[in-house]
Amino acid sequence: MSLRLRKKPSAPSLQRRHRPLILRRTTRPDSLIPEDFDVICDGAVVGRIFFTGDTSPRARAWFWGLAYSFRKGRTPTHGYEHSREAAMVAFAKSWRRE
User: Is residue 87 within 8 Å of residue 81, measured between CB atoms?
Assistant: First the structure.
């Protein structure tokens, strides 16, 4: 019988996972979407959340996605939710790998 010990996360690893995510209206000049937000962590854009424009009652009209360079080891990397708040929760869950 063998036991596998899980490596305890280091303090820097824990700090990295719990740094705040900030939602900021995008400053991208090519964005034509009024409800378009960058997700910022430690001063870097790590993803995006925006309204797709679908207003049907069953719509999951808010897209969220991790920036390509931050996707490694995280799943899911993008999705659609019914509200901006739900998209923020889904993004944070993927970002923190909960």
Answer: yes
Mean pLDDT for all residues in the chain: 81
- By C-alpha distance, which of 34, 49, 52 is closest to 89? 49
* Paired sense of beta strands 62-66 and 44-51, if any: antiparallel
pLDDT confidence bin for 71, thresholds 50/70/90: confident
Q: What is the DSSP letter of 62?
A: E
> Of all residues in the chain, what percent carry a pLDDT higher than 90?
47
Q: At which residue do the structure tokens 């929760």 appear?
A: 89
What is the 8-class DSSP label of residue 50?
E
- Reported as half-sphere exposure (CB side, CA atoms, 13 A), residue 32 has a value of 1
Sign of CA dihedral 34, 37, 44, 66: negative
For 80, counting Cβ atoms within 10 Å of its Cβ (0-12 exposed, 13-18 middle, 19+ buried), the class is middle
Q: Is the confidence at residue 30, as pLDDT, over 50?
A: yes
